[in-house]
Amino acid sequence: MSSPESISRSAPSTVSATDLVSALVTIETSGAGFVDLTSEIAKFVSEAGAREGAVTLFIRHTSASLTIQENADPTVLGDLTTALARMAPENAGWRHDTEGPDDMPAHIKTMLTASSLHIPVLKGELALGTWQAIYLIEHRSRPHRREVVLQFAGTTR
Amino acid sequence: MSSPESISRSAPSTVSATDLVSALVTIETSGAGFVDLTSEIAKFVSEAGAREGAVTLFIRHTSASLTIQENADPTVLGDLTTALARMAPENAGWRHDTEGPDDMPAHIKTMLTASSLHIPVLKGELALGTWQAIYLIEHRSRPHRREVVLQFAGTTR
Amino acid sequence: MSSPESISRSAPSTVSATDLVSALVTIETSGAGFVDLTSEIAKFVSEAGAREGAVTLFIRHTSASLTIQENADPTVLGDLTTALARMAPENAGWRHDTEGPDDMPAHIKTMLTASSLHIPVLKGELALGTWQAIYLIEHRSRPHRREVVLQFAGTTR
Hints:
homotrimer; 157 residues; alpha+beta; 5-stranded antiparallel beta sheet; 3 helices
């Protein structure tokens, strides 16, 4: 374990937070790949009038998943796809193969990434870092209709 | 990155959400494998009188973890076990081996899956997809006693 | 799937939870490795006056991540580093290499671990298990300045 040079922390800031805003996003994917949901989530935060709190995303599927990753160089997404394919290859002796060779790898890739994401909202904005985007990852080869539940909990204006 | 055919989103729905309900689930596992917690969580949601909000699960261990996966074909769970064993094999030169050959792989499998899960509750029901179940994964060979903290935050009746 | 010997659950306990406390932690890492944030998070919980609810952590980066892992034997952290390096090796044909050979592996390791963590707070204390610690994992070789957003939602005194 490396020692950090330093850790600093801002003073805690408290508000009364009693609002819960929910919505459902439906995404028609065009086959395996990353779908950037960031602007859609930002619109939800804006329409909800969210001020302080957090947004959560929950995907209602086991062969597609969620991740937060770099938004700048598209080769990053290609390399992430390669990395997942190496960890969960097709035709690797899986017993569950009735839905096609891409199905069991899709379940494994879902297990290794996220079913839900949590992003703070501060002063009405998603507290994402400069290089972060919110992605749905379609792990199946063919297009699928995917549902993601959005919830904001906190204060609204 | 693939482009989605379309993204649509329902109108945001807001409620005042001020209730927090907590409980502790204790699971005596019978050794390595998946334990389906879905009906137990559904009972908690029902007994809590949960209406709108989310349930979170938190596992208090580093050699067992949580995941949301397919509930239909049991060979999926077998293949997920195989996939984790390939990524975190026993006797692969691990330095931490005093607690047995299954211990360090159990920590790695925990790191690759989830310590906490978040599932929305809408109209009093877990917003799981048709094929989703909530599993505890016991990564150790022998039976263990495992604790999972449940919390519902939102509105109750 | 193994059958559990038994599952038991405590009675649900409900409180009115309307407080949201936020803070930002800045960590200057000293290069690749694990940084234990547990005592810093415990201080935040104490200063926030948190009683019942949950703390969430969100890391604003895509080449460093979060995990909950064993706090006892430091060789566990070394073996976790080895496991991640085997799954995301340097010089493995990645297309994204302009920021150095450690950059694309850092993105993959981030995808495989967590961008956010959720830890319940019960009776004013983090509900961590005996062997659990909260770690930031720096995946880049060189020191970096990292930001983690902390939020407690629940009841405060």
